[in-house]
Design goal:
By secondary structure, the chain is an alpha+beta fold. It has seven helices and nine strands; from the N terminus they run αβαβαβαββαβαββαβ. The strands form two sheets. A five-stranded mixed β-sheet has the order 3-2-1-4-5, with helices on both faces. Strands 7-8-6-9 form a four-stranded antiparallel β-sheet, covered by helices on one side.
Length: 177
C-alpha cells in the first residue's frame, strides 16, 4: 500500500482541484490480492470521472473503482464507508483516526454451553483482548477494525453470539492524548 500512496501523493501535489484521495475497500483492508483498488477523489469542483479513472489506472497499473465526491455530496452514503475504512492519502492516516471517531460492532454472547472452568478461562482470555469495551455482562463493543479478529476469537471458543454493526452511531470517542 505504501507504493500506491506514494504515487497518489504525486498526483495530489500536481492536481490542485483534488482536495484528497481516499483509498478504501478490500485493498485497504489487506485482503489478499485485491482485483481492483477502490478510490474516492474529493474535490470542490467537478472532475471528469473517465479521464481521472484512466489516469489512475495508468499510474497504479491496476483496475480502479472510482468515486468522485465533492464537498456538496455530504448526503451520499459513500461518506459512511469512507469514514469507516477510508485511508487519506493527503494526511497519511485513516479517516476515523483523523477525526477521532471509530465505528463499532456490538456483540451479545452466551456462555451457557461452557463449563464453569471454561467460563473462567474465557473471561481471562477476553481481558487480554485489547481495544474492546465491556458494556454489561455478555455485551461488548469492538472497534470495526478488530471485529473479524473478535469473531474468530468467539468462534475458537465455540461461543454463540449476535453481532450488530453501527456505521457511525453510536461512536466511541477516542480520548485525546
Amino acid at each position: 500500500m505504501k507504493q500506491t500512496v506514494k504515487k497518489l501523493k504525486l498526483l495530489l501535489a500536481k492536481n490542485k482541484d483534488i482536495i484528497d484521495i481516499i483509498l478504501f475497500g478490500s485493498f485497504v483492508k489487506g485482503k489478499g490480492n485485491a482485483s481492483d483498488i477502490d478510490i474516492a477523489v474529493l474535490s470542490e469542483v467537478s472532475i471528469d470521472r473517465l479521464k481521472m479513472k484512466k489516469e489512475l489506472e495508468v499510474l497504479l497499473g491496476k483496475k480502479i473503482d472510482l468515486q468522485i465526491v465533492t464537498l456538496h455530496d455530504y448526503s451520499k452514503s459513500i461518506w459512511i464507508a469512507l469514514i469507516r475504512e477510508g485511508f487519506s492519502v493527503k494526511h497519511d492516516v485513516f479517516l476515523h483516526q483523523l477525526y477521532k471517531i471509530e465505528p463499532l460492532v456490538l456483540y451479545k454472547y452466551s456462555l451457557k454451553e461452557l463449563t464453569a472452568s471454561k467460563k473462567v478461562m474465557f473471561e481471562r482470555a477476553l481481558k487480554n483482548f485489547a481495544g474492546i469495551q465491556r458494556i454489561s455482562n455478555r455485551v461488548i463493543l469492538v472497534p470495526i477494525g478488530k471485529s473479524e479478529e473478535f469473531n474468530d476469537f468467539l468462534k475458537i471458543w465455540n461461543i454463540d453470539f449476535d453481532a450488530r454493526e453501527y456505521g457511525l452511531l453510536p461512536l466511541m470517542r477516542k480520548e485525546e492524548g
